[in-house]
Design brief:
The chain is an alpha+beta fold. 17% of the residues lie in helices and 32% in strands. The chain contains 14 helices and 48 strands. α3 packs parallel to α4 and α11 (555-567) packs across α13 (579-602).
């Protein structure tokens, strides 16, 4: 059990020693003894890792030198030492991709055909003081060529239809949006477990709330019992309870306990509250010693699904409160390694949390994530939508061996992540029903027993409080219809629909949405230029732009459509004569599209209860689907989403002939007393003195104000009636704390479209002061500044791509990625004439 960890010296540890790998042609060698017949080129590697990561570290592979790892056979060798006196050693193989055989000291100890399952092998009598471990990973390509029953349909997602028979990742095998980096090799740790008096084989830990009390029920199976535990105690936080023991017929010992935590604090998504967690520990008395096991941390919350009055909706209700779920679809941080370590995960997840994301989806085209990832989701208050690893294909559920492998895989996953408060939704698959329906198959052929019966039953037995969705999209007349159930919404996006479609589509919950080729910031584009890659033209740039397999367009074409719609320019002409301006408009266009869509979905009265953007992070450098680039830097779209996702947000909705509606949202547990200010601008100059009104936003509620009512007489804020030339081109609304005057949130309307003209009299000034951890930058402007962006390599601001009003002073923090580095940067504004240098850098004594 991956979650149970022995506290003390007798726990499992990574196999050290000297590692190397080599490649051969498929099926040329069958056993380690055959290796002696060839002079192989053994490549050293620092421990077990996938082939791509090992070759990258050795300088023998990168994305510019693609290689089909599935066409070669790979051998790993490890020479390591172990205490010879260990009587009951075991090797843990946490993940082998994909068809593998393992030998220890010449003895075959394991065959594995499922990338997603862990294997534990007793190596008593085989392990020695000096050891040699060999792992053979068979070439997948020849196995895919084997004749098997034909599927009911063919998918364009992958190049080879027979992947449906093999439990391996589609990631790296899906041309069009993912580089060809197939996971091959040991992709999860290999551990050596030394003898100890007791070993945990299975854990079943469940949480519940009874009134105000938290309840933890645990059932644990122990083996290798040198002596039956005389007594034991289960600890949950400061509470505890004695355990009961039962000797089982197979020699195992069953331990059970129920612990009650009086007045347990409730766990919330971070947008709505705090995330109290309770450590769980099992202590057992054996003879003259006590053994303790760390069983992770649990949290207490209730979760229900609101289907709406018509029974066709889908929305999460946490602790009795409807929660608008917003976030993104998670992607591995390192496509080659598939693991980024605790610090890498923390930085990435904190960045998404700071953008207001309270849900992530691990989709069926990805891989199951590490315990570290799940620990951090619990800690940071990020709900998780967890897919099983199935997508688009007709999986052979009637094959007994395949079905057995899937059940084993599912049980391992469910045992590993049960009891976690972040786990909200389990999903059987991605786009399987949609794929079948779009190919014209009748409704009875969309379904698969795996997702109708097998997997939901297992989820119910292990994590009964989690929601179940058989496939996404699903629930409508056709799976891809958006007005019922769970949808994949790409109306605004791939289908080039107008922004009004976000309301017209009547989305209930978008488990995927808004895929755009998001242009990265200047730091990334400058880096690519340094490598000889011209954004918009170079083949490497285009290789980073995702496309749907078989389509005659890519997602850069989608972005260009919205540049044309928002700015009224011709993108192809602009790209040719002014590529920097083209990139500037592209950066803004996708952010505006996302902001406008989520403003529609979050407004009071909307049918939508959540949306997850496709993707969180790019897999490779360039203009991919991610709102964060492949190095972890936020893209411009990230900052627009941060405003759309904020727990306290202000939304401006153009209601056409009905004027401009402003909605102030408050997800927090305290009411907010604020002042709402509205000011009109024409060509950057203030047209009116502005107007304001007091607003009280209830706790976990909303307050709406019709902006037209704040002005005396008719103003035509949305320029819907068009009586003469427009009197204003910007409507700026700010929500300020009534006590301090600080800006809480802002929203803007552009009734004449986004600004395309450069203003040479903006009068923008930026000054910086060194402070602990980076710099404080203060900005002021004489005229309205649109999409103000700080460009400073080596620094990440706490806000960016915001709009600045005249007379408003904005103070930002620039966090240094490396302590002590000097600030060299500028400020760029879409309606400005050129970069504005950051001036008057003062090095304060407190700076570091």
């Amino acid at each position: 059990m991956a979650r149970a960890r022995l506290i003390g010296s007798g726990t499992a540890r990574p196999v050290g020693g000297v590692w190397a790998l080599a490649t051969t042609t498929p099926d040329r060698l069958q056993t380690p003894a055959d290796l002696e017949t060839l002079a192989l080129d053994w490549i050293p590697c620092e421990g077990p890792m996938p082939v791509a990561a090992a070759l990258r570290a050795a300088g023998k592979w990168d994305l510019d030198r693609p290689r089909d790892f599935d066409t070669e056979e790979w051998w790993y060798r490890c020479r390591f030492t172990s205490p010879a006196a260990d009587p009951h050693p075991r090797l843990h193989f946490e993940g082998l991709a994909t068809v593998a055989d393992v030998w220890l000291n010449g003895t075959h100890i394991l065959s594995s055909e499922n990338m997603f399952t862990a294997n534990v092998v007793d190596v008593s009598g085989v392990l020695a003081a000096d050891n040699e471990l060999f792992i053979r990973f068979r070439a997948l390509a020849p196995l895919l060529a084997a004749r098997r029953p034909r599927p009911k349909w063919r998918t364009r997602l992958v190049a080879h239809q027979q992947l449906r028979w093999h439990r391996t990742a589609l990631l790296g095998r899906a041309p069009g949006w993912c580089p060809p980096v197939a996971p091959v090799g040991p992709w999860r740790p290999i551990l050596l477990e030394h003898a100890c008096p007791l070993r945990i084989e299975e854990t079943d830990i469940r949480t519940a709330l009874e009134g105000d009390d938290g309840i933890v029920r645990a059932s644990i199976h122990l083996t290798n019992a040198a002596a039956i535990p005389r007594s034991g105690t289960m600890h949950v936080g400061e509470s505890s309870s004695p355990v009961t023991r039962q000797q089982m017929a197979d020699g195992r010992v069953a331990i059970q306990a129920t612990v009650r935590i009086p007045n347990a604090e409730r766990w919330w998504p971070h947008t709505h509250g705090l995330q109290p967690l309770y450590p769980v520990r099992l202590s057992l008395d054996i003879e003259d010693c006590e053994i303790s096991f760390d069983l992770g941390r649990v949290g207490f919350r209730t979760l229900e699904i609101d289907r709406d009055a018509d029974g066709q909706g889908f929305g999460l209700v946490v602790n009795g409160l409807p929660v608008f779920s917003r976030g993104a679809c998670w992607t591995p941080l390192d496509l080659a390694r598939l693991d980024s370590g605790a610090e890498g995960y923390r930085v990435a997840l904190e960045r998404l949390r700071d953008a207001g994301m309270n849900m992530l989806r691990v989709g069926g085209t990805m891989v199951y994530e590490t315990d570290t990832f799940h620990d951090l989701c619990d800690e940071l208050g990020i709900l998780l939508w967890q897919d099983f690893m199935f997508a688009n294909m007709d999986y052979p559920s009637s094959d007994e061996s395949f079905l057995h492998a899937v059940k084993d895989e599912a049980r391992q996953l469910l045992r590993r992540i049960q009891g976690r408060p972040s786990i909200a939704v389990f999903c059987g698959s991605s786009e399987i029903e949609q794929q079948a329906a779009m190919l014209g198959l009748p409704a009875e052929r969309w379904k698969n027993p795996l997702f109708e019966d097998v997997l939901p039953a297992l989820v119910k037995s292990f994590v009964p409080d989690a929601a179940w969705v058989r496939s996404t999209p699903s629930g409508g007349l056709f799976p891809f219809h958006t007005d019922r159930g769970v949808s994949h919404y790409y109306g605004v996006g791939a289908y080039l629909r107008p922004f009004e479609d976000a309301r017209r589509a009547d989305v209930r919950f978008a488990a995927e949405c808004l895929a755009f080729s998001n242009v990265p910031d200047a730091t990334m584009t400058d880096r690519l230029r340094d490598e000889g890659v011209t954004p918009g033209h170079h083949p490497r740039w285009k290789a980073g732009v995702p496309r749907d397999a078989g389509s005659g367009w890519d997602f850069e074409d989608v972005r260009d459509h919205y540049v044309r719609l928002l700015f009224g320019v011709e993108p192809n002409e602009l790209r040719a004569r002014d590529p920097e301006r083209y990139l500037a408009f592209g950066r803004v266009a996708t952010g505006e599209a996302m902001l406008r869509t989520f403003a529609e979905w979050r407004r009071p009265g909307s049918s939508c209860r959540g949306g997850l953007v496709w993707f969180a992070r790019d897999l490779t450098p360039g203009a991919g689907w991610g709102v964060v680039d492949s190095t972890g830097r936020p893209k411009p779209a990230y900052w627009y989403l941060k405003r759309a996702f904020a727990p306290v947000a202000l939304l401006a909705l153009d209601e056409g002939l009905n004027g401009l509606q402003l909605h102030a949202l408050n997800d927090t547990s305290e009411p907010i007393e604020a002042e709402l200010h509205v000011t009109l601008y024409r060509e950057g100059r203030r047209r009116t003195a502005g107007t304001s009104t007091p607003v009280t936003i209830p706790a976990r509620g909303a307050s709406s104000v019709h902006a037209d009512a704040l002005f005396e007489g008719f103003v035509d804020l949305t320029y819907a009636y068009r009586f003469g030339p427009p009197q204003h081109d910007v409507v700026a609304a700010t929500l300020r704390d009534r006590a301090t005057g600080n800006i809480i949130a802002s929203a803007h309307g552009f009734p004449c479209g986004l600004p395309t003209m450069r203003d040479d009299a903006l009068g923008l000034v930026a000054r910086a002061e060194a402070i602990a951890g980076g710099y404080a930058v203060t900005l002021e402007t004489d005229r309205f500044a649109y999409a103000v962006a700080i460009e400073a390599d080596g620094f990440v601001p706490d806000d960016n791509f915001f709009h600045l009003e005249p007379g408003e002073q904005r103070r930002l923090f620039l966090r240094a990625e490396n302590a002590g580095q000097p600030l060299h940067g500028c400020v760029v504004v879409v309606n400005g004439t050129g970069p504005v240098p950051i001036l008057s850098v003062v090095r304060a004594e407190a700076a570091c």
